[in-house]
Design a protein that fits this description.
By secondary structure, the chain is mainly alpha-helical. Helix content is about 80%, strand content about 0%.
């Protein structure tokens, strides 16, 4: 399992894992700000600066991970841990993509979407907390290399993906204002992608290298 590579890969592997955990922390912050903008439209524009600043940190961290991996490969040569390198790049990319979807959520607020007085605000707020809790939990599981919890969360998050799909289908069939339906369909599309990337990160703890990103596919397309 890739988990074993991180646990036994020495100082370099530990440093890479720490960088990834920091990226996930910044991704959670970016998502928190993005959701805040959706529920407080008046401050959406001002919150955009903080979104971009945090996203820059995420992007820099990903580049730093790449550099460290290149150094590892250059110094170790034929003895370089290729599996660890490939897995680390994959996980870092998933973390970076979560940051991108946080920006997409903020984009909705920047375009004037405001859920402050929405009739379904309670439901939307509940999803806000579910997403933030999911990022925090994946960070904990990744840092602690908790494989049992990883398996459990994969099943739980798979159910969340199904729930997102149900909301999206309901919005497609909605006879209400198009602006409301489009905003919610896009939001849950972004939430679904965040969850999928979190699941990909969890696979690094419980699956071999060739099975990474397994949960990024629809259930019907998984082999």
């Amino acid at each position: 399992m890739v988990f074993e590579l991180f646990r036994g890969g020495g100082v370099r592997a530990t440093e890479i894992a720490d960088h990834i955990a920091e990226m996930l922390g910044d991704c959670r912050l970016t998502l928190e700000i993005a959701f805040e903008a959706l529920f407080d439209g008046e401050n959406a524009r001002s919150l955009g600066k903080e979104i971009r600043k945090t996203d820059v940190r995420v992007n820099k961290a990903e580049r730093a991970i790449r550099r460290e991996l290149v150094v590892h490969a250059s110094v170790r040569g034929a003895t370089a841990n290729i599996s660890m390198i490939l897995a680390s790049m994959s996980v870092a990319k998933d973390a970076e993509r979560i940051g991108d979807y946080a920006k997409n959520i903020w984009d909705l607020a920047a375009e004037g979407i405001d859920f402050a007085d929405a009739p379904d605000r309670v439901m939307l707020e509940a999803w806000r907390h579910r997403v933030l809790d999911a990022v925090g939990e994946v960070t904990r599981v990744f840092v602690e290399r908790d494989t049992e919890a990883a398996h459990d969360r994969l099943k739980m998050f798979d159910d969340l993906v199904d729930e997102c799909d149900a909301v999206i289908r309901a919005q497609i069939r909605s006879e209400g204002p198009a602006r409301d339906a489009v905003a919610r369909a896009l939001l849950f599309r972004y939430i679904k992608r965040v969850i999928a990337h979190l699941m990909n990160i969890l696979t690094s703890l419980v699956m071999p290298i060739d099975r990474l990103d397994y949960y990024d596919e629809k259930k019907a397309d998984r082999e």
